[in-house]
Write a structure and sequence with these properties.
Number of domains: 1
Low-confidence stretches: none
CATH topology: Ubiquitin-like (UB roll)
CATH superfamily: Beta-grasp domain
InterPro entries: Beta-grasp_dom_sf (IPR012675), Mopterin_synth/thiamin_S_b (IPR016155), Thi_S (IPR010035), ThiS/MoaD-like (IPR003749)
Order of helices and strands: EEEHEEEEEE
Protein name: Sulfur carrier protein
Organism: Isoptericola jiangsuensis
Structural class: mainly beta
Radius of gyration: 13 Å
Pfam families: ThiS
CATH architecture: Roll
Mean pLDDT: 89
Number of helices: 1
Strand content: 35-45%
Length: 80
Amino acid sequence: MTAPASTSALVNGAPFDLEGHDAVPVADVVARLLPGHVVDGVPRGVAVAVDDVVVPRGAWDRTTVRAGDRVEIVTAVQGG
C-alpha cells in the first residue's frame, strides 16, 4: 500500500496545508500567514524564498508553492 500524496509544503519549518490545491501562489501564502503585514493590499517588510531561491515581490502572483516545497518567509522588524 502506498502512502497518500502530501498536500502540504514546509513554511518556516512547519507544515502548510495547500487545502487540496496542486499549487498556491506565494502571494496567497503570505496573505494567509501574515495578514498584519498587508497594507492597502500590498505586503510590507516581507521577503520569501522557495526551495532556497528568493522570489521577487513582483513574481509572487505567478510563483507557486507546491507540495513538498520548502518556503522561508522573513519579516522586517524595526527597533534596536
